[in-house]
Amino acid sequence: MKIAIQGIKGSFHHIVAENYFGESVELMECMTFSEMPDLVLNETVDAAVMAIENSIAGAILPNYALIDEANLEVSGEYYLPIHQNFMALKGQRMEDIKAVYSHPMALLQCRRFLRGYPHIMMIEDKDTADVAKRIHDKSLKGVGAIASVLAAEIYKLEILASEIQTIKDNHTRFVIVQKKGNKSCKNPTKASLKFVLKDKSGSLGEVLMELAKHKVNLSKIQSLPIIEKPWEYAFFADLVFEDCQEYKNALQDIKAKVSSCKVLGEYKKNQ
């Protein structure tokens, strides 16, 4: 399969693609998430791996909008433990490093560690693995990267400090997105929805009551502004269930309680 990822080989998206689809997967590297929808819709790739939320930093809101606006289908999910490592050219020491470049999320996750090295300037970059590759390709001295162990291996860098993320139990949730109708899950245990409430008091409470009645668990809910309607919001929700029929019954009841409801995907919950 050909899979679009954000970043390059050695990135966390690369790790997820291989863990989910197998090591023989062919990768298409994208520097931005916004490149992915057209690749999926034009069938240049079979699917895309897209980070959607982190256990520390929270939801990646623009990616919810990308999935919705392109009418993509969420066909799976994968939770990856994020282990951040400080790396540089072989022979370099921490005192030699003047600046560290990495993705803003990685810098955020490692801020406490970096406070111990005030001489190192933190600079945001587009991708963790891309920085590692740049250091290797240009033999950059005095420059560090924060990235995965895989990136250090691929680009032959030395890890100066391992597991430097502030919260050791740090996970990112990735979703697998495909063109709508390309794949359907026969016995889903999780679903992602987008719904807009009716303009009346207690609308959200009514939706939650329907979920409880049908024993469907709301594992996440996230609001996002409706751009063309100032101060109005759409809700993106993840539902977890054991009985698929109960979920379908809940979905029918919810649709009667909201002004609009769209199923973004039905898939197997990642254990």
Structural class: alpha/beta
Strand content: 25-35%
Number of helices: 9
Count all strands and give the number: 15
Order of helices and strands: EHEHEEHEEEHHEHEHEEEHEEHE
- How far do the termini sit from each other? 23 Å
Radius of gyration: 21 Å
Helix content: 25-40%
pLDDT average, as an integer? Answer: 94
- What is the global morphology? elongated
Q: Please mark out the parts with pLDDT under 50 across 5 or more consecutive residues, or reply none.
A: none
Q: Biggest sheet, in brief? A: 6 strands, mixed
Could you please describe the fold and organization of this structure?
The protein is of the alpha/beta class. The two termini are 23 Å apart. Strands 1, 2, 3, 4, 5 and 11 form a six-stranded mixed β-sheet that branches. The chain has a five-stranded mixed β-sheet with strand order 8-7-9-6-10. The mean pLDDT is 94. The protein has nine helices and 15 strands. It is 28% helix and 34% strand. A hairpin with a 3-residue loop joins strand 3 and strand 4. The protein has helices spanning 12-21, 36-41, 61-69, 104-109, 111-115, 128-138, 149-154, 203-213, 244-255, and strands at 2-6, 26-30, 47-54, 58-59, 73-81, 85-88, 99-102, 121-124, 143-147, 158-161, 171-178, 190-197, 217-225, 233-240, 258-267.
Layout of strands and helices, then pairs:
Blueprint (H helix, E strand, L loop, with lengths): L1 E5 L5 H10 L4 E5 L5 H6 L5 E8 L3 E2 L1 H9 L3 E9 L3 E4 L10 E4 L1 H6 L1 H5 L5 E4 L3 H11 L4 E5 L1 H6 L3 E4 L9 E8 L11 E8 L5 H11 L3 E9 L7 E8 L3 H12 L2 E10 L4
Parallel strand pairs: 1-2, 1-3, 7-8, 7-9
Antiparallel strand pairs: 3-4, 3-11, 5-11, 6-9, 6-10, 12-14, 12-15, 13-14
